Amino acid sequence: MSINADSSKTLAGTPAADATPAVSELDTIVSLAKRRGFVYPSSEIYGGINAVWDYGPLGVELKNNVKRAWWRSVVQQRHEVVGLDAGILMHPQVWKTSGHVGSFSDPLVECTACKRRYRLDELPGTGDLTTTQLADAEIVAKMGLKCPDCEGTLTAPRRFNLMFKTFMGPVEEDASVIYLRPETAQGAYVQHKNVRDSSR
Fold first, then answer.
1. What is the pTM of this model?
2. Partners of 177 in the beta sheet?
3. What pLDDT, on a 0 to 100 scale, did the predictor assign at position 184?
4. Is the distance from CB of 143 to CB of 125 less than 8 angstroms?
């Protein structure tokens, strides 16, 4: 039996409790998933896009197996449930009526030192603030809020709209504004009568 001279490892070869791993467990899993063809970073040859992934050959099969099993269990094996696959693009009036266009946004602040962004209403001490107070450009200074990670200075809050706005047709004008759906529920709401009438 040989003794490993590397003090950062135990005799079993695993890192000691106080050793800092060079590669995180998540990085190891991501690397394996990429090598095996489950997922690839999107647009990787151009540097990739943070948090966007493409399914590889095995990833597509796994995803489809999960979808089929879920569909069978939740839709096909129940008599009171039917399917609906609503479009990603819907009439903009749907989103205006539901309140998404006017209020589907978060107040964000950014640390000027570490560049991290935070929802203002999730910072310590801000949970009871009203919508009006959250929109106040001076609220960060008034409350003396600092970055929770590095104690850096935070910017004034800015509204981050969670709606993905695009245009329908060849011309970008107000009359052609449309939104990618931010949630799937609205499709079921606006098609409820059609589904009910055709599924009796």
1. 0.62
2. 167
3. 85
4. yes
